């Protein structure tokens, strides 16, 4: 076994690898860029080596620097994590030539599965079912349109070198095809330096189901079963689970067998993932093979008890797998939520900044009224850390395991409730919304889930009765604490609580307060024949989390004091809640509603990024749908189009300008 390994990665996956290495008694060397000096992984590693400036192209992707760091540290092997150099056969070969072990599959397997066109051919030869389409490269737009007509719309346009959901587009018509083909080619060139593009049939209403495989250098290959990753935005996964709620035993076995056959065909000898799209009828087609550790690997670890990083290290060291297919069983259910610095209320656009507040749920076993659940939280950052624009904006991977799927969903909802972030936009309310949806609970998933369930974007959910009670009780209790803290305890017991979502005046709820013998706050709801009992209140002015027990069930809400009330978020519900005396409430009802500023004549940058082009000039007449600006962020080009006809009144940015979210780019008259 190795005594020292180098980790050629950063963030949560570097932390994840260090944890296993430490448990195995292997010491770790972490390479890091400027931006990652002092990071959590940096603090945890036994040794660190600085390898350059923040952009990955000048640090994590420079092979010479990684090899040099291995030499200097005396490490015997390199774990590449995912992304960066993890699927680069040139890097794997280079290490081999230098006598350094690559903790991953052999270079031949990486190469064979490295691009989507070649791997699809391999899969077809190994008897794996593949998506119908055109196996060759497509050079011109005319050719693309012609092939698309042969395949039949809808058609998926894919960059052969693509990954991470980039370089993928669906075309429904010749016009879509012509535009999409050029866009995918351009995106592929900037993101992957390779503009090869191919077409395949778009499988309608599909689900993403993948098989985890594991091999060693002695010809043993097993399937560690399936994961479903259908909850995606921009073709990128956000919520994953294992096993898939779609599969029956026969389909599970058929997919596992095909995945193992493909792995065998390339002498696969590490952890890898064979991805499929599946129809609702359980038909399935090969998509691609990822020859690396997968982001969502923890859910597989939770249902099988196998540590995949440990297995990768053992296999790289030449050890024989200590178990066979028959030793593996699925135990319970696991769900992973990817917590991203991105704003779900604004189309999931990336958000950057300092994580000024970060409270994480406790790992390990918990109990909810519905049963036990286990929390695992793979995080790469700490409170106070910066989420920078240089890398993937993933903050953590929060996982919940329980004996049943319903238990895992409930556990995840609670773990999310115990997660608090501030300083950057984040998707926790969105993840919480999905856990609360009946469709998700019923397991009727599809890759179109987010579009189906949130057709006009995500705006949070409306409170159900329990959440309305939580909003009322939280605001009333905070109001009590504040008046007491002000040294001016009013003995008022009658209040009107106004709950407003968005720009409304708010729904009034009359309450009457009293304390019972055990010091619990009792709220009689006026006009309703019931009372709420709030106990174990854990909040004081300045805290962003309000914890208490409402009617015997604990909850946590995110709270903020604003000028005339409180902003409260519980799970996917957020509201402005005001606690007013009956007289003030009457006055409030007569106040005019503030109208939000009219932004309909402005084209604003939806995210921080770089202006690529503003192809309009002052005085120009623009028609609906015409491109007005192109912004690049996170290696993706975002085309901003006119939402109505108009004449350009002002242009406030030019190509090359860095812009912040909401910066005005173009103004119409
Ligand atoms: P998963 O199926 O594990 O989510 P993804 O394909 O989404 O895998 O990619 C996982 C990580 O690797 C992401 O951080 C993604 O940005 C990165 N990645 C994947 N493929 C590439 C690639 N070809 N070039 C750059 N980064 C990539
Ligand atoms: P990446 O390398 O970016 O992960 P994939 O080929 O794995 O690219 O595709 C990403 C996602 O796009 C899949 O998870 C699936 O949701 C969707 N997808 C890909 N190919 C098809 C297809 N032919 N039909 C329907 N959906 C597809
Ligand atoms: Mg994929």
From TrEMBL:
Instruction: Note the PROSITE patterns from the entry.
Output: ATP_GRASP (PS50975), BC (PS50979), BIOTIN (PS00188), BIOTINYL_LIPOYL (PS50968), CPSASE_1 (PS00866), CPSASE_2 (PS00867)
Reaction(s) catalysed by this chain, per the record, are: propanoyl-CoA + hydrogencarbonate + ATP = (S)-methylmalonyl-CoA + ADP + phosphate + H(+)
Co-factor(s):
biotin
Q: What is its EC number?
A: 6.4.1.3
| Pathway(s) served | Metabolic intermediate metabolism; propanoyl-CoA degradation; succinyl-CoA from propanoyl-CoA: step 1/3
Q: Which residues form the Lipoyl-binding domain?
A: 593-669
* SMART domains from the UniProt entry: Biotin_carb_C
| Domain (Biotin carboxylation): residue spans on this chain | 1-455
Q: What keywords were assigned to this record? A: ATP-binding, Biotin, Ligase, Lipid degradation, Lipid metabolism, Magnesium, Manganese, Metal-binding, Nucleotide-binding
**Can you tell which superkingdom this protein's organism belongs to?**
Bacteria
Question: Which parts of the sequence belong to the ATP-grasp domain?
Answer: 120-317
Q: Does the keyword Membrane apply?
A: no
The name under which this protein is listed is propionyl-CoA carboxylase
Query: What is the species of this protein?
Result: Brevundimonas vitisensis
